[in-house]
Amino acid sequence: xxxxxxxxxxxxxxxxxxxxxxxxxxxxxxxxxxxxxxxxxxxxxxxxxxxxxxxxxxxxxxxxxxxxxxxxxxxxxxxxxxxxxxxxxxxxxxxxxxxxxxxxxxxxxxxxxxxxxxxxxxxxxxxxxxxxxxxxxxxxxxxxxxxxxxxxxxxxxxxxxxxxxxxxxxxxxxxxxxxxxxxxxxxxxxxxxxxxxxxxxxxxxxxxxxxxxxxxxxxxxxxxxxxxxxxxxxxxxxxxx
Length: 241
Prior knowledge:
Blueprint: H1 2-16, E1 20-30, H2 35-47, E2 54-58, E3 62-73, E4 76-95, E5 98-119, E6 126-149, E7 152-176, E8 182-195, E9 199-200, E10 219-231, H3 233-240
Antiparallel strand pairs: 1-3, 1-10, 2-4, 3-4, 4-5, 5-6, 6-7, 7-8, 7-9, 8-10
């Protein structure tokens, strides 16, 4: 996080002289690898298989809302990016005699810098672009377990975990320009995450079920975005000249 703030400080004088401000909202969709977290759920299923417990939710692909604030100067577009990820898993079995359930709820908060390069072409209404987004990913996991026999609660436990990782997301896309000030983008890429060791909330030491488990959101990403462009005073003056 300190490195990101340092880069933003260095970029601040450049941003003040930006030709055009760009605000973008992207509606994304992604797959999530979450190898270690899925292994935890598999272990719960194995331990409760005697009661015929099964995975009824297994960390499905889900939507990824995100937004960026930056500026455009010629073929270069860069700034700050934030986004939110969520998914979950459930192990469940139940009948008239009782119920067993384990829920694993995951959320992730990404923040970082992005750089987009527009490839010039003869057509004015669209551009192909290449983009890379490095940053920090803060993850939270809540694990709730409940066992009810008859009308009596035998087990009711809730644990919260956290992790901090670094990620990089390269992607390629197309930007459509029906007007100069309102544009649309479609892109796809792959997120790669490192670090992300799980820690029990309030504890400094890593804790897991199978060693040093990690919350890694690696996976494919698809995005569709709306870009609003506002010219700066510097840009308006240059146009008038």
